[in-house]
Amino acid sequence: MSEAIRFIMGAEDPSHYDIFTHAAGPEGKLPLTSDMLMNLPSGDLFGMSQNVGMGWKPERLLGKQVLILSTQGGLRSEDGTPIALGYHTGHWEVGILVKEAALEVSALGGVPFAAYVSDPCDGRSQGTTGMFDSLPYRNDAAMVYRRLIRSLPTRSGVIGVGTCDKGLPAMMIALAAMHDLPAIVVPGGVTLPPTVGEDAAKIQTIGARYSHGQITLEEAADLGCRVCATPGGGCQFLGTAASAQVVAEALGMSLPHSALAPSGQQIWRDIASQSARAIQHMNENGITMRHILTDAAVENAMAVHAAFGGSTNLLLHIPAVAHAAACRIPDVADWTRVNKAVPRLVSVLPNGPEYHPTIRVFMAGGVPEVMLHLRKLGLLNLNVKTVTGDTLDHVLDWWEDSERRHIVRKRLQEVDGVDPDEVIMSPKRASARGLTSTVTFPIGNLAPEGSVIKSTAIDSTVVGEDGVYRHLGQAKVFTSEKEAVKAIKLSQVQAGDIVVLTGRGPSGTGMEETYQLTSALKHLPFGKHVTLLTDARFSGVSTGACIGHISPEGLVGGPIGKLQNGDWIEVCIDINKLEGSINFVGQGEERISPEAGAAILAARPSHPGLAADPGLPDDTRLWAALQAASGGTWRGSIYDVDRIVETLQAGMEALAKSKQDTGG
């Protein structure tokens, strides 16, 4: 025997070969009737056999079946120690929520089922080729979730447990498409910050800070070890993961005060059992997703997103949820209108002005507390129905006088010495503290189809007294994030530069996140004096003068793909009026008008380094083509089947005609 086989097969143990070839099977009888045997499909009948084969008692087979989907990842032992790691803390503990929900479904006489579609971690894949699968994964996962739901045709409702950047949006999209089913989202909560240390956003800059001598090797190792202070939950900042939880609740898809709960703690566990009871109530009262998700509910979600100062990635996810729900898809004009009308009220990482972690937002009252303020301003549609079965107006009445509200807000003051009204502010206080609305959509000869910036997160010290950020600078053009990060670490990017990262949109990378860049600029002393322009997107925790989603993307002929080193670019962002422009205005010593700049760019060839990343997977190339045919990123990178079929048919007809014309 070779050493390899000896090592692989291990020591012989004859007892392992005592194999049985048959078994008695479960005791009892299926609760069948003549009518069931005559009329039920064979799948329903065989399903009963499968259920008792897995150990379910035959006498309990006829309860309402509830499917619990989750993003669970990794394998934990009963005491929580890892057997196999997950990709991130966000999905590490959600299995506990699945268990709590399942036990409650069972206690109510139902039959729980569970299925899992785990998710990647955008933090883990930053700066790697793993990022090329990040946004496309969302569409794939939503499709798999929908297939899993339909593959259990006897289910009476669905509970979806999810936490992080793509898993939770995928879950929301999937459940939104279940128009005639009761469904509810259980947000997976947040992790706690270390008592002494840094949050999960700042820690991702240790490489850049070390390269500039801001921290030592020992400090980086120590801080990096302690940053995820508890083992479960999404990151401690209001990035994409936390923003998605907030939006799920604002849509009415989650229970009140469920977003941003501390993972692993009892109040977090309770949300799962409460959600199981909500599903039963919805079932008994005929309430389905069609009743919850309406155009008015989408407007509420946009308003709450603005009040929180949420991630710009939700500009991709909210339209996708709306499309799945057969609601009107919001456009740029809708986003601008909402953000001009809705004040930002929440002081939280990464926006400030005080950098409170998300757990404090939860303890200050979370989504319903923010909604109380928005209700007073007349900015909410109050007659929308929520998964409680009540209207939003009734839910907010309950919250305002609830024991839960008063206790958790008081607890924040006692434990952290933080006034909850300094975390979630009244409009008057927010205005006095200088909080501005969330996002601006700059246009210009570099972004003829639009772009986006979280304008509220621009460093206030570089904004003029009139509320306008102005930057006239020369371009340093990069066609890969790796090149740009290296330039920053080697001090080749300096104050006053305008960094241009092109070719990193959907066609080049699957529209990667570029948090390596934005975080480095935030935490380096000169970074606030640098503007970043890209056709990629940003992590939800990104801040500063960072303009993304620039359209058209460079690889489909967008002007951003024609810029050259040394080109003069003018950036103007009015953070109060939420208006902005980005224009190419000169080359060398010459200054030109935006109109003349547009003409020069139109005549220029593309940047010589512009190309799809050589590591781009075919799966992502397919995603990019399908979402482009569906309207692109401004419609949420969705799969609009009607548009895709129409495009394919037109293409096949054109190819057939071309062959006829050429005799091929």
TrEMBL record:
The keyword Metal-binding applies. Gene3D superfamilies: IlvD/EDD C-terminal domain-like. It holds the Pfam family ILV_EDD_C. One of its GO terms (cellular component) is cytosol. One of its GO terms (molecular function) is xylonate dehydratase activity. PROSITE patterns: ILVD_EDD_1. Signal peptide: none annotated. Residues 443-581 form the Dihydroxy-acid/6-phosphogluconate dehydratase C-terminal domain. One of its GO terms (biological process) is branched-chain amino acid biosynthetic process. It comes from the Bacteria. Belongs to the IlvD/Edd family. PANTHER family: D-XYLONATE DEHYDRATASE, D-XYLONATE DEHYDRATASE YAGF-RELATED. This is YjhG/YagF family D-xylonate dehydratase. It comes from Paenibacillus albus.
